[in-house]
Amino acid sequence: MKYLRNKEERIFFFILSILAAAAVFSNFLINRTAGIITLLICLSFFGGIFCYNKNRYRRIEELTNQIDELLHGAQLPVLQAEEGELAILSSQIQKMTIRLQEQSRSLQKEKAHLSSSLTDIAHQLRTPLTTLTMIGDFLSDPELDEQRRMSLARELLSMLKRIDQLITILLKIAKLEGQTVQYQPQIIPLKKLLSDALQPFLIPMELKDISVQLVGDETIQLLTDSTWTQEAVGNIIKNCIEHSESGSHLILAYEQNALYTELTISDTGTGIDEEDLPHIFERFYQGKNHHKNSFGVGLSLARMIITQQGGNLTAKNKLSGGAEFTIRFYRDMLK
């Protein structure tokens, strides 16, 4: 009988049955009326137990059925019991259901993000690979003159270098998005970090006649992973240089207070188009005035590096012209 499937309940019911039978029998021996009354009381008692168990198992069965439907992907609210042990069980199942539904939504988002990432990567690789195919076709021409052949060879090497750069960037993005980067924070003078970040761009800046100025207290120090933060700052500087005309000016200003250390990187270039401003930190986003050799990932990479170290990165246009990027490293970052 399914309402007495629990072993402990069967034993309990068996003992009660023996006691009830003994009580009824003994009362019948004493007095027929007393025996009938005792029998009716026992039947009512056992009837109450039966109805209670029937209702209890019905609610358990309903919970079991809903759990089974949830395991098969249905989005259903779990039944709530009014009180007692079933209420505790129902509450725990409800918590488990919410957790599973959140994990399901998170997995769906990750799946969509992965699909979007693969599409972006394929798009970024398609152009240089197409170019390489065309160059290969040209180079296979036996009548191609030597000068043209050398020109195509240089273009071939340029495309291979671009693909190598893209793969390096994609590997960095994968590490950052997978949160597998092990940051190694150390105290470093902020001026040294900025000087090191500027170093690879000194020649391009000289060629474009772009001057640079560092403004801030030289004693300011920052607790950060210098390698990764230097790369983030370098990406911002590179973006400013690409969008600055000859004779422009680049300012790196920094200050510190009790709450945070702030770094502002500003230029006197063309600024950021208002339509592009909300999207400039999106991966592979390229605005109207993007540089021809840009992948559109530098600023996205910079923001990931900064935010994963407890800071934030924002951008805006200056009233006087040009773009301004602000980085804030909060004083308790990476502790």
Features:
335 residues; alpha+beta; Helix Hairpins; Heat Shock Protein 90; 3 domains; five-stranded mixed sheet; two-stranded antiparallel ribbon; 58% helix; elongated; HisK_dim/P_sf
The name of the CATH architecture of the largest domain is 2-Layer Sandwich
**Largest sheet descriptor:** 5 strands, mixed
Taken as a percent bin, the fraction of beta residues is 5-15%
Structural class: alpha+beta
Instruction: Quote the distance from N terminus to C terminus.
Output: 62 Å
Helical amount:
55-70%
The mean pLDDT is: 81
For the record, the CATH class of the largest domain is Alpha Beta
Please give a structural write-up.
The chain has eight helices and seven strands; from the N terminus they run ααααβααββαββαββ. The chain is of the alpha+beta class and 335 residues long. The protein has three domains: 94 residues, no CATH class; 65 residues, Helix Hairpins (Orthogonal Bundle), CATH 1.10.287; 145 residues, Histidine kinase-like ATPase, C-terminal domain (Heat Shock Protein 90, 2-Layer Sandwich). The strands form two sheets. The chain has a five-stranded mixed beta sheet, covered by helices on one side. Helix 7 runs antiparallel to helix 8. It is elongated. The mean pLDDT is 81.
